[in-house]
Every structure is written in structure tokens, then in C-alpha cells.
Amino acid sequence: MTETRTVSTTDFAQQFLDHLVRDLGVSLAESSANDRYLALAHTVRDHLIARWIDDQAAQHETPSKTVHYLSAEYLLGRQLDNGLLAADLAETASGALDSLGVDLDELRSQEVEPGLGNGGLGRLAACFVDSLATIGVPSIGYGIRYEYGIFRQTFIEGQQVEQPDSWLTLGSPWDFPRPELAQTISFGGATEHYDDEGVRRSRWIPAWNVRAVPHDFLVPGYRNERVNTLRLWSAVATQAFDLRIFNSGDYEEAVRAQTYAENISKVLYPEDSTPQGKELRLQQQYFFVAASVHDVIDRLLADGRPLSDLPHLAIFQLNDTHPVIAVPELIRVLTDEHAMEWDAAWAIARRCFAYTCHTLLPEALEVWPVDLLGRLLPRHLEIIYRINEEFLDAVREQFGDDELRIRNMSIIAEHPVRSVRMAYLATVAGSRVNGVAELHSQLLRDKVLHDFSELFPEKFTNVTNGVTPRRFLRLANPGLSGLITEAIGDGWVADLERLRELEPYADDASFRERFAAVKAANKRTLDAVLRERDGVHVGDGHLIDVMVKRLHEYKRQMLKLLHVVTTYEGVISGRVAVSDVVPRTALFGAKAAPGYAMAKRIIHLINAVGSVVNTDPRLEGRLKVVFPANYNVTLAERVIPAADLSEQISLAGKEASGTGNMKFALNGALTIGTDDGANVEIRELVGDDHFFLFGMAEPEVAALESAGYRPGDFYQADAGLRRAIDLIASGAFSGGDRSVFEPVVSNLLYEDRFMVLADYASYIAAQERVDAAYADQDRWNRSAILNVARTGYFSSDRSIRDYLDRIWHAEPLA
Ligand code: 26V
User: Fold this and answer.
1) Which domains, ranges and CATH numbers included, belong to the chain?
2) Annotated catalytic, 549?
3) What is the DSSP code string of 646-680?
4) Which of 139, 266, 750, 774 sits CB 3.0–4.6 Å from 132 for a disulfide?
């Protein structure tokens, strides 16, 4: 590896000025903040490019197994600070800009974060590419360069309104378009079967196509001189397509066709739980995986390697089912385009793919109607049918003619409409199937994919999620990072288990004091950010109680809100003295899928409760609800370091893992949580004394479900719960109008799919334990420090090492 590169402050300042003049065409005096941001980004980028070129050359020289991470989403967050940290340029840049009288913070705030993901799944992909680069694994992340990422959320009268996220309009300094590496991607048409000297072969005669142009984003490893690639594809209309129509004289039709093709990478679908079966979404999926598979095969062939080498040189990790159409695509390329026999092609495919499942909710499992799939990708449908036939033969061989089992396991579902079950296809084709936390993987084996785990027990494994310590501790929490580094050195940034060395400091009173001072400073910073951003503020000296994640009923934001309403009702009814209320700010951040009506009503209700509670003088400012709009990665980086309490309160058995839970623990928040997802592992590591557990465990949930859950019984039995729900129903938060939140109340009383009412009493009791614990600040801080010291396991570096050992069987480049 090349030696570490260095640059002086003066040289850096000069490089910055050069970029300002050459790229933006302005002098420093005349530049806008955005000009200066772009010039700085280009300067930082230059330093990464040299590393990138060396790294690509090294990877080419020593061909080894390369990891291809296929993900429809990457929720990257801002790039500037990450680049500065990785290349160790933060001090140089800040010194250089100081010398020019330029404010670095102002430039930082210019960057519009690339929000090319919905939530946990997309953010995990972003953490994983960071860790792959930091560990030095030869790898490429493949995805889509959406022109519009996740919508910008605003509130109008407390209700969510979505606005387009035009993140590209002020320039995109981090991306390198590579038009020379474009691929042509086809759709529609029909298949033909023909005789090729005695061998029956198939070919696809598509109806239309589109160009996939790659844009490369640099993924710098942390101070290791490595830079990997994130290759995101953008759709561009093909010339041939336009010309044909132009020549026919129909100008308008030609423009329409162009728009149609370019729509493919226009916008990220903002649904993250209920697949809508939209044709454009299938187009997006096929578009990016076909381009990626071709990209890999082109490189292999250009290096003069035979296609049979593929399993030694490439593994494709399927991030949920969104990229699964890559399986029939690879088989199609091998058989139809390279004349490989079916058995050989299938044997290669089976070794090249592995599948990560990220959900347990049956409605989130993707299925594609055969009609639609056959219309868009006729040859792929034939291949899927053949995979299914052979698979069902194997099932019969193992289990006999058990018709029910065969129907249950078929990749093709017959009801309600004939459809392809993408999770089953991924499970049959993948060499490995993993869940994202111990409990989740267990439930996949025992429930969701039970029949498959009986047939292929060796395929099933677990890789517990992780988060990158660079972004979520080192960058987001400079105060705590400094404190940790002072105590144990800075080795923890790339080796997070070393946080264990902090344990003894939990018993050091002066360390606890400094820890408390950092937390207090982080709260002040958050307060300043929220004042400026949203015109709201968190209570002075309050316990900061945070629930930030997508709005979904299974995550149970309603449960948190019922606790707020219970506290409020206690005071206004006179049953609780306001002086007995432990001062708290309940901070929510959540986007609802635009079509998810109940989620939107819950957002409205949170805001409505906030405006009543925050202005009622009887509360004396001891209870606040703060709900900044448009929670995103940038805001997360401010909120998480300031939190005292992390709300991880999903119904047990529903949250696959959670990753926010890990970020909070690492930043010294205590968790109030159910036995769900990775909470289970967090609690095991930090210890019961430093975690507020409540609620039913998964087997109890299952038992209550099969006994017949009746939420009304819980309402009747608990006076506190009754008062809270009655207060909402009375119109107290809707100006006396009972109708506004009636659907929320009805849903809780009559349906309550996620058993909010059943866990209410236990949750309130746990919150009382929180209040009591918080009263002893010294003890609380000790617990918080132990949370930091004991959660180093949740580094995404560890997750990636687990993938390398258990799934990819690949190694870092020396
Ligand atoms: C699902 C779907 C369904 C089809 C429509 C579009 C769409 C888009 C995204 C998704 C993914 C939902 C699954 C998801 O985000 N799972 C989350 O994954 C996190 C990382 O593993 C995990 O921590 C969360 O518990 C899990 O909810």
C-alpha cells in the first residue's frame, strides 16, 4: 500500500481557491456559500481520487473474490465530513478555511444529504459499504441513482405533507458519471425457442430498452488508504429508440418515450412495508440488477476469465428481495447469451447469490403478479417456472406427494392472483439465507420460512446488524469521542470492541462527571439546532426521551404517545402533583408512507397532543412533546448524542433488528424496550440493570394471538389506560371535535393488531422505573457509560466480518 498522503494547510487553501475559480468560475469574494461548499467538496474529492485509482489498480492486479452488494436503497447521509475524516483532512481543511476567513460550518450545512433510502434497510447498506472499505474487502455497492430521494416531510396544521427531495439541483460533487460504462437494459416483447444444432435454446426479443449510466460514488475506508466504489445507475433514453420515432415524424411521441424511459430512476418509492405491485418498481429492480450483473460479467470477460470462474470471483448479496430478479437474469445471460447448459448455469447461480431477509411482517414480503412479470420480463418468467418445477420435484423427493406442503412451498402462489413469491425464489436460489438479529433469524427458521429450513437447514444463518462507528459515534458525537479517546486511545474507531476498556471508568466519579457534561453539551447543541430548524426547543434539564424511526403501527409510536397522555391527564385531573413529574421531553421523528392513512393520523395526533401539552400552564413546562419534521440522517446525528432514553418498543416478534437501538446505546442512552430484534442482544450485553425491559415476549404474543386477543378487555381492566384513551376520544386534542381521531381510537379498541393495549400497563410501569432511576443522576450516568462500553459488538465492521466468515467466504485484500 502507498504511504499516507499529507498536504499542508497552505496547499489545501490554494487547492480550494483553484477549484472555486476553475469549477465554479467565481472569486472568493463573489462566491456563494454553495460555491464554496462545492469547491471544498472537490478539493476533498481530489485527495480521495488518488487513493481510489491506486486501490482499483491493486484490486485488478490481485483478482480475488469480490463482494457485490445489491441494494435498491442507500441512505447515505452527508458526505463531506465522512470524506474529511477518512482522509484525515479535517484539521487541515479547517485550518485552511480559517486562513481564508471561510466558515466551515456554514459550508457543511449547504450539503443536501443523499436520501436514497427509506429507513433501516437503506441505512444498513450505507453502513455496510463504509465497513467493507474500512476492512479493505474488494467490493462494489450497486444501486439506483434516484433523481428524487425520500420525500421531504413538512407539517401543515400538524399533518404530514410531502415535498419532492431534489437533492441534485445545487450540484452533486461526489458523483462521477461514467457514460463509457453504460449498459443497455431491455424490457417487454416475447421469447422464441429454436433448435441450435440439436440443442433447444431460447432467446428473448425485447420490445424496448433504456441505457443505464453508472455514477460512481467514492467510499473511503477509515484512514487505511482504501477507497471502494458505490455504483448507482441512472436511466437515460436510448438514441436508437428516439431516432426510430423521430424518423417517423412523431416528435411528441419521441419526447414521451424518452420521459417514459427516464422515469425509471426518477424517484425512490417511499413505501417501506406494503408492496404495491407497481410496474415501475419492478422496472427499477430489473434495471439496476441487470446493469450490475452485466457490469460484473463484462469485467470478468475483459480479464479473459471463463464464466465458470464466476463463483470464485463474485458473490452477490441480495439486500432483501428487491434485487432477486438478478437470479433469473444471470441464468438467462449464461444460457441464452453464452450457450451454457441449464444445469451448469443453475449450479453457478446457486453459488453466486445469498439473501438477507429484513422483515417478519407477511404483508412486507414481495410478490409479483405473473401477468405483470411476464409482460415486462417474459424470459425471466420462463426461467422462474423452470426453477420452481425442479425445486418442487426435489420437495416431492424429500417429503413425498404432500400436496399442501408443495403448494405452501411453491415459488408461484395461486391466490389471490397467480404471483411469484420473491422471498421463496431467493431462498431456493441463494447459497445462504440470513436474518438480521438472533431472534429474527430464529423466527425465520421456525415460522416464516419453516418448510425451507427443514429442507435446507445448512442454508440458514444469522448476521446481527451493526452501525458504522465512524459516522454515528466519531463524527456525530465529538464530545464523547474525545472523552473515550482520552481514556483508551483512538483504536476504538476501527475496532469498536475496544470500548470494553471503558468499563472501569464507569466507577470513576470524575469520568462520570465529564460524561455528564458531554451529554449536557450535546443537549444544548440539539436545542440550538431545533430552534433554528423548527423553531422548537427541548426542555432545559429535561430527560430527553427519543423515538425516531419510520411511522408504523408495529413500532408502536401510539404506546409512547399513550404514556405522554397518561402523564398529562394525571396532572390536569389533579391526581398527580405537577412537582412529582420528572421533567421530560418526548422527542419524535417519523415519516409515514404517503399512502399509509393510519400512520398519517398518528402523526397528526402526536402533533395535536404536542400543541396542547406544550402550552398548558398546569404542566409548568415539565412535559414537552417535540416533533421536528423531516427526520433524516443529518438530524439523527444531532438527536442521538443528546438522548437519555431510547424508545425501542415494537411488539415482540415484529422488528427484525432495529439499528437505531444500537446507535443510541453506543452514544450512552439507556433503552426502554421489548424483547424484540436486536434489543435482545443489547440487553444481554449491557445487563438487565442497565436496560428497561417491558412487555410480552414473542411466545406470549403468539399465545395471546391464538387465544383470541380482545383489546377492549385491557381497556376495561386498566383505569389509567381508560382515562388516556377517553381523553383522546373526548376531542381534548382536536378542539373538542371527537371525529378527528375517532379512527385511531376505534382501531385501538376493536383491532389493535400490534397489541398496544396489552403492553400498556407493563410499559407505564417501566417508565416509572425510568423516572426513579433518572432521579439518581450518578447511577444513571454509570449505566449510560456501561452501555457505551458494552455495545462495541454492534459495529457494522463486526457484521461484515460475520458475512465474510459465514456467507461470502471472501477475504480482505492484504
Ligand atoms: C420493503 C418494501 C416492501 C415492498 C415495497 C417497498 C419496500 C421497501 C423497503 C422494504 C424494506 C422493509 C424492510 C426494512 O426496512 N426492514 C428493516 O431492516 C432493518 C435493517 O435490517 C432492520 O433493522 C429493521 O428492523 C427492519 O424493519
Assistant:
1) 8-62+79-112 (no CATH), 63-77+115-463 (3.40.50.2000), 514-791 (3.40.50.2000)
2) yes
3) EEE-PPTTT-S--SHHHHHHHTTPEEEE-S-TTHH
4) 139
